[in-house]
Amino acid sequence: MLRSLVLTSSLILGLASSCSAGLLGHNVNYRRSIPHDGQYIDVNSGNNATEWWWVQAGGPAEDGGAPPSLHVTFYQGYPLTPLRDAAGGPNAPEFYIVLNGAFPNGTVFAYTLPATSSSVTNAGEAVTGTWAGAGVFHNSADLSTFTVALNAPELGVTGTLEIQSNGPAHFGCNTTASPYFGSAIPAGAELNAAEEIFYKQLGWATSQPGGPARVDVTLSGSRLQFTGQGYHDANWMPQPIDAFMDDWYFFDAQVGPFDLSAVYAAITDTTRVFNTGFLEESGSILQNQCSVQGSRNEDKISITPYGLAVDEAFHMNVMQGFILEYTLKNGDVYSFNLTGQSLVLDQPIYHRWVGSAVGGKVGGKQYTGVAMYDWLNPSLTPYNP
């Protein structure tokens, strides 16, 4: 549910607020001097922390088929408690790679590749992540190229993904100094335990906000090969998401000369709703802000869901699309319609769509492109029709 976002959001079920905020980062070591895409915290069996490097690529649907996509995440720890429980609880592998997506014929896939170890090293700004027995990623020193090499032939997975960045690396709050959301805290606000984690200890660094992508992987003998658009970022936090957040949407699209992303987050036990808006045109940033919803009249984003549907597999309400509207500091407005065409990840607490996007400056030329967006809902009550 998009809490108090727009009138249409009332169609979705209300959120429970039973998540416990837990301990604030106990046994977590935060590193200080690191490159943009490097290792920010130490994840180990003695804490509940998690850090991950996320990369995705999607292409347009052709000839009545589905939009092809590949999503790859290099994990240390578990972002959701139910995922750790399902993977074996205290015996779950600490390091692993998750990939999922869809072939052009609509067939979806999902793989988990356990790793025997994980290391993230750097030479200046260049960063290399090695998940032994599963795969490797590399970010170039100028952050222009991000590559993934998957190498788990015993699990049927090999191949590569590469992104060439269209624009500069960034953090989420229009700053080059901090990857945290603290600047969005209203002046004088008292934070609850969940907000303390969200605003001060959940990190987000985007090194490839969008750009051309090439995918060539073999999955259980079937080759997935396409060119499209890609995106890469990294996140880290001292506790699983379900310890401090009820609802999270992440949006990413490439539409003509525009690369855009947005986040909507409903934090546990508070009425304050958080969002971010990032928009660049031909490599120039038009907006990069984070804020509490309703706190601004300009330099803001509005996120409007539409098209209520039912996920029959889990009897849950889902939205078929979203309108993202960016209002710049100078009053210019850009609007984009993101429509989910393929549900490539369908779980009770995690959905992911790939589809189409159309939009541009209001009153100006309109473009078409590729959209990808996720919904994490760790506290949503299932829908019973």
UniProtKB/TrEMBL annotation:
Pfam families in alphabetical order: AsqO_C (PF25581), DA_N (PF24137)
Q: Which SUPFAM superfamilies match?
A: AttH-like
The leader peptide range reads 1-21
Q: Which InterPro entries does this UniProt record tie to the protein?
A: AsqO/PenF-like_C (IPR057722), DA_N (IPR056402)
Origin superkingdom: Eukaryota
Which residues does the UniProt record annotate as the domain Diels-Alderase N-terminal? 49-236
Q: Which residues form the AsqO/PenF-like C-terminal domain?
A: 245-376
Q: State the UniProt keywords alphabetically.
A: Signal
Hydrolase as a keyword of this entry, yes or no, is no
Q: Does the keyword Signal apply?
A: yes
Protein's name according to its UniProt entry: AttH domain-containing protein
